[in-house]
Amino acid sequence: MQDASNEREFKRIETTLPIKISLVPPEEIPRLKDRAAKDSAFQYKKLYPLDNESLGEWLAAVDAKLDLILQLLFENQKVFDMPLQVCDISAGGMKIVLQEKFSPGDILDIKMVYPSPNPQILHLYGEVLRSEQRDNGYITAFKFIHMDDSLRDKIVKLVFEKEREMIREKRGQ
Asked: Cα separation of 7 and 4, whole Å?
């Protein structure tokens, strides 16, 4: 039987995602909550209902992709500038190997691509819990902070979808 103190609030999964992580400058830390709220306000708006359901779905997918392109242009960043990185992710935080050492309490700016038929860049913040040197870099663990429920739900869905993929692969072997 597992000790209740060792149980995690959210399920974790190891996956590979395009991720870019940087330190939040100290002068920006007091404004994090405002930035997090603004960043997560990017939501898909439903199109007018159409009689042709498949056309409506297709237009919604095109609209979401255009929104992503506009978001990338607005933030002056490109998805291919985000290296693919293996990470251990849950809706509560992430563990990842980084080339830079961070200190406990440091606040990180995390941009990652949410993989879906309509990919979206998630802009998250994390507080470093630990950063331990290994041969290939620093294993850095951080908890997500200032995250609203819609972003947390996206990560829960990501973990669920990756678990389903793993189960399907096992059945196929």
From this structure: 5
Burial class (CB in 10 A: 0-12, 13-18, 19+), 59: middle
Q: Which two tokens stand for residue 90?
A: 């849950």
Chain segment 116-167, per-residue pLDDT in tens: 766 778 889 999 999 999 999 999 999 999 998 988 998 999 899 888 888 8
In 3D space, the residue among 90, 122, 95, 92 whose CA is nearest the CA of residue 13 turns out to be: 90
pTM for the model stands at 0.72
Q: What does the alpha-carbon distance between residue 109 and residue 24 come to, in Å, rounded to a whole number?
A: 6
Q: Which homologous superfamily is 10-43+83-172 in?
A: predicted glycosyltransferase like domains (2.40.10.220)
Query: Which value, in Å, is the radius of gyration of the alpha carbons in the chain?
Result: 18
Q: What pLDDT shows up at residue 75?
A: 57
